[in-house]
Amino acid sequence: SPPGYDLWLGYSEIEEPALLKEYQNTFKSIYFQNGNEMLHAAERELTTGIKKMLRKLPDFEKLRNSENTVVIAKKSNLESSLLKRLAFDFDQLGADGFVIKTVLFERKQVLIVTANEDIGILYGVFGLLNLMQQRESLKHIMLSDAPKVNIRMLNHWDNLDRTVERGYAGFSLWNWQKLPEYIDQRYIDYARANASIGINAVSLTNVNANALILTPAYLEKVQALAKVFRPYGIKIYLTARFSAPIEIGGLETADPLDLNVQNWWHGKVKEIYDYIPDFGGFLVKANSEGQPGPQNYGRSHVDGANMMAMALEPFGGNVIWRAFVYSEHDTSDRAKQAYTQFVPFDGKFRDNVLVQTKNGAIDFQPREPFHPMFGAMPKTPLMMEFQITQEYLGFSTHLVFLPKLFEEVLHSDTYSKGKGSTVAKVIAGSLNQKKLTGMAGVANIGTDLNWTGHPFAQANWYGFGRMAWDPYLDSETIANEWIKATYSQNPNFITAIKSMMLTSREAVVNYMNPLGLHHIFDTGHHYGPGPWVSELSRPEWNPVYYHKADEKGIGFNRTPSGSDATAQYAPELAKIFNDPKTCPEEYLLWFHHLPWDYKLKNGHTLWDGLALKYQQGVDQVKTMIVTWDDSKQYITPEQHNEVRMLLQIQLREAKWWRDACLLYFQTFSKQALPEGVNKPT
Ligand code: GCW
């Protein structure tokens, strides 16, 4: 396969002789329970992995016998004597969980992979392959794992013409023209990659939706994809355009309280389930950025979401209703609007509705404080929406390891039930005893040979999946796993590249949006810097709205003397954010408008400190380049070169950000650059 195509499923050969020997002894004779297409998919994956890692294939047996050194079967298929040996409480596994354990059975070591359900076996096999890719000994292995979140989902923003909104890795994978007959191998490999990290849901189409996806001509094609994804435990969701009853249904209205509209959705849902019996449900962007919605008819988000929920309920489907709303008619702080619109509806949504909320209150910035809604809707299943595609983080050109960002958000404390009420607990449902939980990531995947454009952007897909499975995982563990599975087992390489990845997120914050600055991107494409006044009509689409720089100072006052957005957080937090002395400096200008000579904690003035942060970002990219060049010997020249070239662009653009922002802000601060900050060239 072309470079990077295999993602983290390269299954590189085991080189350490002792470990190779151990594995060869372990995998002498494998009993793999026969069964449906899901078990077959799992068995195929194990075969591929073992063949590549061990160079030779052991016997796979369909009949259990005393020679078996590996037993892979559901609990219901294990003999009671073996179960006894295993001594494991299967209740904790649920449907998706698995256990991998080596036991002494009839005087032989037997490695067991077991689960309650087929899907647990699939995840268990990927878990086993992961252990081998991590070069873990299996001699005394005892690993049990189960996901902490129900819906672990990718949101593709793919249009039917195969362009991808905010996509930087080629065109959409979905070849609508050739579907349903032509099944691209990529669909299968995509499903494998997702299953390997536990992703179990995908929404195929852009949230800025085209109603045509709900017509039979397309449903047939979606059905074909569903068939490919099913053995890998992946359910399909579709984006539902709220005005679809008008556009494809011939009705005059899409009013959710209109009986004809309700009937239309009931009929449509039934039709979809005829094609796809395990259809997941709808993902809806309504009354946001010009998309139609219930408010067009004077109805509320609850009216809209519940109307669709009722249609889906009989079939077990869900509505994922997005909370990313802000309006040109609302002149209050944009950061406050979603909370204002949604929090009063807490407890009013039907049971199969999840409200999907972006990690921050503005829009996928390099850094934002967590969205205050996460601490304010205890009666509603809140689903996290992260952006894996790097709309505001240098597209697929800049190396930025996003699990650092995800972790920061998930570890944030909402204080909604006192200290320790983290966002992770809200998402995992443990804080408010939620039965339905979810996490979505806006995909960064396209037709590029390596799927994601930047080879390191693969780590963001990988890391998202791992954190959706377990929101308490830390980013360092994820980086470690990914490097080993993707690049190399060499400890020097791993140490160096891990530290490069872990600093990369702070670097991008520093050279783009330090000290809580946000949305100072060039208008429309959001790639380079553009803090100056833009041509756009809506004030909140104008970067000056966000930084509010003037001769006196810079920043957005969101304290009670300003927009009072801090009041949307728990009182403990609001208090911390309201005082610039206690407000974490990474959020300083998010919450405060401060004079240019305001003293930062390190003693620098705000102007000097800001300039030094921009410089630090540039320097961090320089260090990344040194690290990468020093690691050349551990990878192939091609692997080295592609990232080397990308890092050169990143460095040039980090300087561009620094120079553009500092020159612009300097027109207000009217101060010289401090020592240590390079002058624009
Ligand atoms: O981040 C903004 C993007 C839009 C996107 C929107 C959303 C799909 O600039 O391209 O539209 O958010 O999340 O709905």
TrEMBL record:
GO terms for cellular component: extracellular region. Residues 452-676 form the Glycosyl hydrolase family 67 C-terminal domain. Gene3D superfamilies: Alpha-glucuronidase, C-terminal domain, Chitobiase/beta-hexosaminidase domain 2-like, Glycosidases. GO terms for biological process: xylan catabolic process. It catalyses: Hydrolysis of (1->2)-alpha-D-(4-O-methyl)glucuronosyl links in the main chain of hardwood xylans. SUPFAM superfamilies: (Trans)glycosidases, beta-N-acetylhexosaminidase-like domain. InterPro entries: A-glucoronidase_C_sf (IPR037054), GH (IPR017853), Glyco_hydro_67_aGlcAse (IPR011395), Glyco_hydro_67_aGlcAse_N (IPR005154), Glyco_hydro_67_C (IPR011099), Glyco_hydro_67_cat (IPR011100), Hex-like_dom2 (IPR029018). Residues 7-127 form the Alpha glucuronidase N-terminal domain. Its EC number is 3.2.1.131. Residues 132-451 form the Glycosyl hydrolase family 67 catalytic domain. Keywords: Carbohydrate metabolism, Glycosidase, Hydrolase, Membrane, Polysaccharide degradation, Transmembrane, Transmembrane helix, Xylan degradation. The active site is at 289 (proton donor), 363 (proton acceptor), 391 (proton acceptor). GO terms for molecular function: alpha-glucuronidase activity; xylan alpha-1,2-glucuronosidase activity. Belongs to the glycosyl hydrolase 67 family. Homodimer. This is Xylan alpha-1,2-glucuronidase. It comes from Kriegella aquimaris.
